[in-house]
Design brief:
The complex is a heterodimer of chains A (296) and B (292). Chain A is mostly helical. In chain A, 72% of the residues lie in helices and 1% in strands. In chain A, strands 1-2 form a two-stranded antiparallel ribbon. In chain A, α1 (8-36) packs across α13 (263-295), α3 packs parallel to α7 and α12 (249-259) packs antiparallel against α13. Chain B folds into 2 domains: 23-59, no CATH class; 80-290, MetI-like (MetI-like fold). In chain B, α5 packs parallel to α8 (154-177), α5 runs antiparallel to α13 (241-251) and α13 (241-251) runs antiparallel to α14 (256-289). Classes of the chains: A mainly alpha (296), B mainly alpha (292). Chain A: The chain crosses the membrane at residues 12-32, 73-93, 102-122, 157-173, 211-231, 263-288. Chain A: Belongs to the binding-protein-dependent transport system permease family.
Chain lengths: 296, 292
């Protein structure tokens, strides 16, 4: 298939600049952190090699770690639960709205905003009513004063407030992806289905759904990997507090390494995160390969 | 005549159909409308908030327009280093974009067109890297950069930005380059063009559409990036916009209006670009999502 025969030097000139930067910035640090995960080191002074002690401590003696893993996974579950909703919205847009582009681009607007703007905006919305927070003011206005609370500092709801912001920001992304997928299904397929007596949601179940399985996969990978990496938003909004109530794996890593100066321990968490991401991607790909085989 | 009756008929059919579905349709539009409000109103609220005085914000009239727009909020926001942050962001983002385009189009060309043994292997390296979370490299990179004495320079954020933008860029570009007909290069070779010449005057010009997609993706990701900048940069004069916005907001936590104004200013550049290029951006982001 590839036809151009070129000298070794030409290949090197084309590929190496890219590859060197990439390996140097992505793979070398990962290997370094696998190694420094086995050190007892504060990042500056002397380090001692402690073998797998950090990992042992992480898995068995860290009271923050497993709850943070659970929250990370919950994050993924919530993000994936959003995808069917996005699909429904996309179907409605496609079927009932004559010029859907305006709505699609409006839903998409939050996606392009920096996580700092989104995080700080919602922090302001979640503020107590006495500090101008919109949510609590609305609740007061409709007579639900008792529902109002300090959304980000009350440990029992803080994490849910954060999930909500992520769902809010990315709903438009998933809607757009599903919408594009549906629009690519040719019209005559539906035409043929109508002749066979399948219309409306029945047609969706038997046609739209199987045809956009690949698109579903994209959304799920995006949601899953995105939530494993959910990090900056939490750093901006709560920093993992109050009292670790909103810590996820990556904020735990950050706080351990940069706040508590346990560099070696932080590295072992980073290593765990990398392994988790790779494993998750392989699992999702495996499941979807099976699904696609069944449907095609 | 014929067509006009057909049109009239169609209209009639459409009219009856519309009537039949009017209840469903009303519900659908209600749902879509509510969604529109939840997605857009917070941003609008921020705009109103940024024009209000502290008293108005605290009084609880979240729906009301500001009594008299407090432009003062914006001038106190601009007294912060807004333009400095903006320039830094423009600099960092454009250097990253140019470097990514040049390096990854070279690499994508080699992967998709050269006859050599390791093309596939190189691609796999990039694909695996796509799944590695950026945060996991945060600590080791910090130590490495500290030893290279480039911590707290723009280089220390541009390098990782370039590296983490490459896989998707190579993926999109090589996907496109595979579809270019081989005859084009063959005739160029017959005409005596060298490989560099073929690349710069034939391949790059035809690849403008995917290059635009890469530009959009890189722009959105890098322009909005916060955590790397906040970790590697510490001097005030080097901060990028998201980092600058965050430190301004954390500092002025009682001047609500000015915080709102700074957030609006922080969102403004990307919103303006979105208004100008909405279709291009949404298409580009979908293309970028396909990487999974």
């Amino acid at each position: 298939m590839n036809v151009l025969k070129v000298s070794r030097w030409t290949i090197a000139a084309f590929v190496l600049p890219c590859l060197i930067i990439y390996i140097g910035i992505v793979f070398v640090p990962i290997l370094v952190s696998m190694y420094s995960g086995m050190l007892d080191w504060n990042g500056i002074g002397e380090s001692t090699f402690v073998g797998l002690a950090n990992f042992k401590k992480l898995l068995f003696h860290d009271s923050v770690f497993w709850p943070s893993v659970r929250r990370t996974l919950m994050f993924a579950v919530f993000s994936m639960a959003e995808i069917p909703i996005a699909l429904l919205v996309a179907i409605l847009l496609k079927r009932y709205v004559r010029k859907p582009n305006f709505l699609v681009s409006s839903y998409f607007l939050p996606v392009i905003l920096s996580v700092v703007v989104v995080g700080q905006l919602w922090k302001t919305i979640y503020n107590p009513a006495s500090m101008g927070g919109m949510l609590n003011q609305i609740l007061d206005a409709v007579g639900l004063h008792s529902w109002g609370r300090a959304w980000l500092t009350d440990p029992s709801v803080a994490m849910y407030s954060l999930y909500f912001v992520a769902l809010w920001q990315y709903l438009g992304y998933h809607t757009l992806i599903q919408f594009t997928g549906i629009s690519n299904v040719p019209d005559d397929v539906y035409e043929a289905a109508r002749i066979d007596g399948a219309e409306g949601f029945k047609a969706d179940w038997h046609i739209t759904f199987p045809l956009i399985v690949p698109i579903f996969k994209i959304s799920i990978v995006l949601a899953f990997i995105g939530s494993l990496q959910a990090f900056d938003m939490i750093m901006v909004m709560t920093g993992g507090g109050p009292a670790h109530a909103t810590d996820v794996i990556s904020t735990h890593m950050y706080n351990m390494s940069f706040t508590s100066m346990k560099y070696g321990y932080g590295s072992s968490i980073a290593a765990f995160l990398v392994v988790l991401c790779l494993a998750a991607t392989f699992c999702i790909n495996f499941i979807f390969n099976k699904l696609e085989k069944r449907y095609s | 005549m014929n067509t006009s009756t057909a049109v009239a008929l169609n209209k009639q059919v459409a009219a009856t159909r519309r009537k039949r579905f009017s209840v469903t349709k009303a519900i659908v539009f209600l749902v879509l409308g509510i969604l529109f409000v939840t997605q857009v109103y917070p941003l609008l609220w921020l705009l109103l908030y940024s024009l209000k005085s502290n008293e108005e914000i605290l009084s609880g009239s979240f729906f009301a327009l500001p009594q008299s727009p407090q432009w003062g909020n914006y001038s106190s926001a601009l007294e912060g280093n807004y333009f400095r942050y903006l320039l830094n962001s423009i600099f960092v983002t454009s250097v990253t974009m140019i470097t990514v385009i040049i390096l990854s189009s070279l690499c994508a060309y080699a992967i998709s067109r050269f006859r050599w043994r390791f093309g596939g292997a190189v691609m796999v390296v990039f694909l695996i890297g796509m799944m590695i979370p950026m945060q996991a490299t945060l600590l080791p990179l910090m130590i490495i950069f500290k030893n290279m004495h480039i911590l707290n320079t723009h280089l220390s954020i541009i390098l990782p930005y370039v590296a983490f933008s490459m896989p998707i860029a190579i993926f999109i570009l090589s996907g496109f380059m595979k579809t270019i007909p081989h005859e084009i290069e063959e005739s160029a070779v017959v005409d005596g063009a060298g490989i560099g010449r073929i690349f710069s005057s034939i391949i790059l010009p035809i690849s403008v559409p995917p290059v635009m997609t890469v530009c959009i993706l890189t722009f959105i990701n890098i322009w909005n990036e916060y955590i790397l900048a906040a970790t590697f940069i510490s001097s005030e004069k080097l901060k990028t916009l998201p980092f600058g916005v965050n430190s301004f907001v954390s500092q002025y936590s009682v001047n609500y209006g000015a915080i709102g104004a700074f957030l609006v200013l922080g969102a403004l550049p990307v919103i303006i670009i979105y208004f100008l290029l909405a279709d291009k951006i949404t298409q580009g982001m979908v293309a970028g999502a396909v990487k999974g």
